[in-house]
């Protein structure tokens, strides 16, 4: 007997509202439609998708009770049925694409899944920045895809939003939700760690761009005038510290401070002194926020 049939037999005496909805046997509630009607007729209906608040808990169910009292939490038996029923998996992916279009993005690729901007991204991004409740929807979508056997769609969506926030300087009202909720919801440890590294890398890169003018204004000669030559001992220490090498060879810590090789530190201090003629304490106060000597 097929797995699908066995699972259905085991759950036959249980209430399965989420399975029934995805099998097109019941409408979502309250004031709802059958899932096929939603998937076929709601695509591109942005005002309807924005203002209707009952459907999202049914399209992307979770184990926890949401705000819609009519939508029931996923049960363990429902999860197994939904993960192993081809018809449900097909509808789940259609629901995912429906919401991606609402957000102004789309899927590309089959084996290598990627999320990119859609042609409507400008107006849809404006909507995302204005209506913060969509951050809750995105969190729910990411978590639900992981629960229902479609975890491969989690990381590409989260990475897309992180890139828009950290690199493209878009969707700034989404930043806190992306870091606190979207990213931790990714189930695969390797993918989640890679996303965390991506965040760290681009936070440091962005901070470095902001920091360089400050550092340059302190010194009579730009810091790029010097070539950092870290000793083997210093390199070993750096390998254990959170941060990264910048393109100009300097190592920048996670807290934004630039690491000075011990051999260069005295020369840079002398350069600062020649500009400010400050005392030891004054120079230490000026340099400490921006530099570190291991």
Automatic annotation (TrEMBL):
Matches recorded under Pfam families: OGFr_N
Protein name (record): Opioid growth factor receptor (OGFr) conserved domain-containing protein
Annotated ranges, domain Opioid growth factor receptor (OGFr) conserved: 15-203
InterPro entries in alphabetical order: OGF_rcpt, OGFr
GO molecular function terms attached to this record: opioid growth factor receptor activity
Family of this protein: Belongs to the opioid growth factor receptor family.
Source species, domain of life: Eukaryota
Matching Gene3D superfamilies: 1.10.340.70
Cellular component GO terms held in the UniProt record: membrane
């Amino acid at each position: 007997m097929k797995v699908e049939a066995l699972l259905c037999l085991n759950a036959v005496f249980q209430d399965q509202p989420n399975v029934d909805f995805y099998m097109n046997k019941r409408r979502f509630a309250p004031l709802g439609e059958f899932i096929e009607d939603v998937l076929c007729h709601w695509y591109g209906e942005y005002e309807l998708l924005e203002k209707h608040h009952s459907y999202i808990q049914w399209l992307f169910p979770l184990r926890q009770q949401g705000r819609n009292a009519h939508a029931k939490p996923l049960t363990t038996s429902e999860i197994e049925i939904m993960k192993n029923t081809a018809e449900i998996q097909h509808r789940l992916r259609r629901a995912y694409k429906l919401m991606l279009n609402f957000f102004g993005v789309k899927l590309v690729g089959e084996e290598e899944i990627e999320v990119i901007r859609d042609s409507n991204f400008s107006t849809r991004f404006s909507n995302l920045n204005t209506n913060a409740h969509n951050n809750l929807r995105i969190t729910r979508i990411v978590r639900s895809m992981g629960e229902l056997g479609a975890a491969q769609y989690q990381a590409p969506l989260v990475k897309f939003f992180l890139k828009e926030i950290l690199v493209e300087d878009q969707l700034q009202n989404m930043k806190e939700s992306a870091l606190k909720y979207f990213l931790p919801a990714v189930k695969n440890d390797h993918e989640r760690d890679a996303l965390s590294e991506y965040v760290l890398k681009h936070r440091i890169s962005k901070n470095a761009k902001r920091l360089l003018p400050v550092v340059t204004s302190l010194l009579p000669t730009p810091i790029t005038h010097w070539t950092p030559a870290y000793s083997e001992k210093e390199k070993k220490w750096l390998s254990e510290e959170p941060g990264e090498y910048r393109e100009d060879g300097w190592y920048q810590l996670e807290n934004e401070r630039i690491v000075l090789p011990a051999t260069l530190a005295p020369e840079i201090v002398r350069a600062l002194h020649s500009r400010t003629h400050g005392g030891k304490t004054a120079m230490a106060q000026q340099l400490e926020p921006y530099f570190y000597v291991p």
